[in-house]
């Protein structure tokens, strides 16, 4: 009888105990030291920029870095939950709110790229003639031309939804396709089905050779400049807060900025990102 009662109590305790999700797995680990910094970001990791930055930083630190692949919205959620030490993101309004609320600090401009609206070469919605990004979006909705959305609360998705609101168009119907995938995967899907998509310029530079059905149809509106910031945990919030402070400082240093402004030049013949000095005039 006592054993039965004990078993019931243990089951009840197990059920009542709060569940904790396991820590996000590293998409990649740079360095082999046990002392590890956890960083969340999307395209800078996917395109290899983070690896170059990590290599340069870790050369002077006895530490390793875990990259967790996540879009800007998910990255900030991980930071808030103390699952990562720092993030590299492009969601200005959400970043400012995080700092205001006190769970993120040292918000530092680190660089930029820009958004391109790409689509089928015959441009069925005629967006190449648009005078603004919002006009381009309105034309796509009016034509009900296939448009792919990441739909994942990433920085790209946030920007897209802002443009839809400003255009006055409602993105819904069979023509509006949500992928819940990252930038490169969605870009490839757009190429596969001849749809429109708003990609960042860095991903376009890296993937354009294989995207034979698409071309850049609209770019150049200042609203499409995409600024990146680094943010980290407040002092004492995680065990690696000091190292995260140092990495944020490194991103803004001349060495870090040189890596950012030149990354991609040797691979693709053109840089994939602009530095903070260029991005500053677009940082709002």
Structure description:
With 284 residues, this protein is an alpha/beta fold. It folds into two domains: 25-110 and 227-282, D-Maltodextrin-Binding Protein, domain 2, CATH 3.40.190; 113-224, D-Maltodextrin-Binding Protein, domain 2, CATH 3.40.190.10. It is built from 13 helices and eleven strands. The protein has helices at residues 2-16, 43-46, 49-58, 72-80, 92-101, 133-143, 155-167, 183-193, 201-207, 241-252, 254-262, 265-268, 276-279, and strands at residues 28-30, 36-41, 64-69, 86-89, 105-120, 147-149, 176-178, 197-200, 214-218, 225-232, 274-275. Strand 6, helix 7 and strand 7 form a beta-alpha-beta unit. It is globular, with a radius of gyration of 21 Å. It starts with a helix and ends in a 5-residue tail after the last helix. The relative contact order is 0.18.
Compact summary:
This protein is of the alpha/beta class. 42% of the residues lie in helices and 21% in strands.
Question: Characteristics of this structure?
Answer:
single chain, 284 residues, alpha/beta, D-Maltodextrin-Binding Protein, domain 2, 2 domains, 9-stranded mixed beta sheet, two-stranded parallel ribbon, 11 strands
Secondary structure topology:
Layout: H1 2-16, E1 28-30, E2 36-41, H2 43-46, H3 49-58, E3 64-69, H4 72-80, E4 86-89, H5 92-101, E5 105-120, H6 133-143, E6 147-149, H7 155-167, E7 176-178, H8 183-193, E8 197-200, H9 201-207, E9 214-218, E10 225-232, H10 241-252, H11 254-262, H12 265-268, E11 274-275, H13 276-279
Parallel strand pairs: 2-3, 2-4, 6-7
Antiparallel strand pairs: 1-3, 4-10, 5-8, 5-9, 5-10, 5-11
Helix pairs in contact: 3-11, 6-7
